[in-house]
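Structure ticket #2291
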Amino acid sequence: MGAATTTKRRRPRAVPWVLLGIWVAVMALAGPFAGKLGDVQHDRAVDYLPSSADSTQVAKIQERLPGGESTELVLVYHRDGGLEPADRTLADRQVKEVDRELDLVATPTGVASKDGTTLMYPVASTAPGTDEEKRDAFVNDVRDVVKGGGGLSVDVGGPGALATDASEVYQSLDGPLLYTTVAVVAVLLVLIYRSPFLWLVPLVVAGVANVLSMGVAYGLNQAFGTSVSGQSSGIMTILVFGAGTDYALLIVSRYREELRRVERPYDAMVTALRGCGPAVLASSGTVAVGLLCLLAADLNSSRGMGPLGAVGVLCALVAMLTLLPALLVVLGRRVFWPLVPAFGSEPSKRRSLFASMGSSAGRRPLVVLALGAVLLGALALGAFNLPGNLKQEDSFTSKPDSIAAMETLAAAYPERGTQPINVIVPTAEAGELLGRARSVAGVDSVTRGRAAEKWTELSVVAKAPPQTAAETATIEALRDELDPRGAYVGGPSAEQLDLKDTNARDRLVVVPIVLAAVLLILVALLRSLIAPLLLLLAVVAVWGASLGIAGLVFEPLFGFEGTDPGLGLLSFVFLVALGVDYGIFLMHRMREECLAGAETGAAALTALRTTGGVIASAGLVLAATFAVLVNMPLVQLVELGFVIAVGVLLDTFLVRTYLVTSASLALGRKVWWPGPLSRRPAAPAPPEREEPELTAVR
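Resolution: structure written out below.
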């Protein structure tokens, strides 16, 4: 009997160490694969597009033409007061050197602007092929050869240079994004926990989860061909640290609470996980399912972001439910120093900010609900002020060489296009289709390029500058004329047009799927229809208000000339999934109180008082992690980070605190309709127990 008791006591002590050993083995396996994730990352425009798009077909066929895919550049020589004879001589000599050393498709011919200030040389090479590293090396070699000086500026632009500049930006994101995210989370955790040691534990666990997620993401790419872009891998890192820290806040808060009631840390942790584990599992599952709905998107970048985001959330969940408890149990109570929760001690009796907020919402719930709805609706009107679609030249927060070249060309050649529209036609009909292309309104010139047995390449120059409404009309007219004959129209501007059209299609398909999937999960979790609809309506209102705030600041404050076409869909998916995540924390606790016999109104106020601090802390951390993207050098990342950060803050401090609580108070037991709680008479409430909360704000 004594031996059995000893074994039973020793076994719990061994569990944390076994878990730590398992995680050491997991890191040993995942680490090498995590380091390879950057090798499979692709950020070309055609990598984002669906295979059915015209511009994608053009890129694929060009790979099979003699020499393979070509890298197209434009060398731009410019002097404000007009080019001098020496400038032209220098340009000719440098272009010949590029032609001699870098294996160009054809010897470039210069085209002078009418005002005499600019000379451009279209350059193309098939040497790099589809290898992005070779392309970048080729572009940088060209930049090493062509140099200005003495008032003469020389810029290398064109699709190849733009792709290289974008690739270098994405490659440079990994380090700064990770370091900044870690620093932001560390500062917030120190402020929240008020401990010199405790903050380090969830941060280390989140770092471990990030390595695991990178390894799993690489495995998905190798096994299923899941697309990986700089944007999706960056968002995955944000989700690991943001969502993972949220789960850690909830677990640590409940663990601290149980340490006051339970003597042994192991037993306190088991009790804590039993109490908050279902909410953490449900919330993370909802986020993962919401993100996986992106698999229905036609856009490769969006479809790839779904699995990567879900991997990040699930890896964070696994780490926070296993590694974090193991570390906390091994470290014992002393990890909370100086605010150690001693066994049998009483928590602080201070009245929290959230108790006061709940009381104010409880006095006039309908008035609070109406005022909040009016405020969100008014903010949402700002979405009509969002700038139009983002152009390539406006996609960087700082101006790289390729963008400077595009701006110079647009000013110097207003009467013609400066980047080609690539058209692929059947070789058997190449002559006839070349003539048809020349007859299309808005076309300046058409030249025949490479040819193979089946396909021939045509290079079309529009009369309008790139990415203007007139050039878009020309592309659409070319497609109307040539697509029925088996041709494809692509090129940089056509790729941007296809991105916009595909994003519009994806919004119509993915948004209803996300709403339906999240609603079903909430119905199953809360055993109600009204409560899930209330939560969904709240997060949709937050999304609209966040876009409205973006419309008020993007152009006037940030100076953005356009909005990324994917902003609406991606921000919707993230805000709905993450917003419902916090709603689950609140509603799950409210349902627990109702099951214990409390009336819905009292349960709502108790849930707000006991979980409000955790939700506020989690919301601050998550908003701060997405706000890290605002410092990134790509406009689409800045816009996405801003909208999600603002949405999370609105959801945390307005919608979740006031509107959901006031709606629950106004509806009473009807909030649980048609579940049994809507018909169950309230039992006499037990004596109120003062429960501590983890607060970032009091």
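Closing remark: Residues 7 and 516 are 49 Å apart (CA to CA).
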